Amino acid sequence: MADIKFHGNPVHSVGTLPEVGSTAPDFEVTGTDLSPVKLSDFAGQKIVLNIFPSVDTGVCANSVRAFNEKAAGLEGTTVLCISRDLPFALGRFCGAEGIDNVVVASDFRTDLGEKYGVTFTDGPLEGLLSRSVVVIDTDGKVVYTQQVEETTTEPDYDEALAALS
């Protein structure tokens, strides 16, 4: 269980992020067209998992926008943005924002949050995913993780992207 904060108040997640050096757990989430999206679909690529509570909040929307902008120049890398928002909400946001350099998917009916230890167990966001970044190399190994200590702040984009090299 991780100790994190939401507006300065302690909240917890179901576990901890996978350890650096471990094999990233496979998962299946739901794409905006309701098709399955699996980690294994991106085998052989570098992957950035941008995990967040809801695209309908300012900080979460900013993280999707920032990774979309930064992903435009990342060769051989997929940025996968995941929340428990419905796939329709994610698709609506991306369409309205012109987001097309990242893949967005929903964990609304699967267990990525539990496999990656990021589902909130208490507080106002209970059941949603905590703001986290996991970077996975071409061999499927975790090379960087960050579970943002204060949920209302953005992740460290530069550090996450530096882990890709």
Percentage of helical residues?
10-25%
CATH architecture: 3-Layer(aba) Sandwich
The biggest beta sheet is recorded as:
7 strands, mixed
Separate helix tally: 4
Secondary-structure element pattern, one letter each: EEEEEHEHEHEEH
Q: How many structural domains in the coordinates?
A: 1
> Mean of residue pLDDT?
92
Q: In angstroms, what is the radius of gyration?
A: 14 Å
Low-confidence stretches: none
Give the beta-strand count.
Answer: 9
The CATH H-level superfamily is Glutaredoxin
- SSE-based structural type: alpha+beta
Strand order, largest beta sheet: 4-3-7-6-5-8-9
Q: Which outline best applies? A: globular
Distance between the termini: 30 Å
The percentage of residues in β strands lies in 25-35%
Main CATH class:
Alpha Beta
What is the CATH T-level topology? Answer: Glutaredoxin
Structure, explained:
The protein is α+β, with helices and mostly antiparallel strands and 165 residues long. The protein has a single domain, classed as Glutaredoxin (3-Layer(aba) Sandwich). Helices cover 21% and strands 26% of the residues. It has 4 helices and 9 strands. The protein has a 7-stranded mixed β-sheet, with helices on one face. β8 (132-136) and β9 form a beta hairpin. It is globular. The relative contact order is 0.26. The mean pLDDT is 92. Belongs to the peroxiredoxin family. Tpx subfamily.
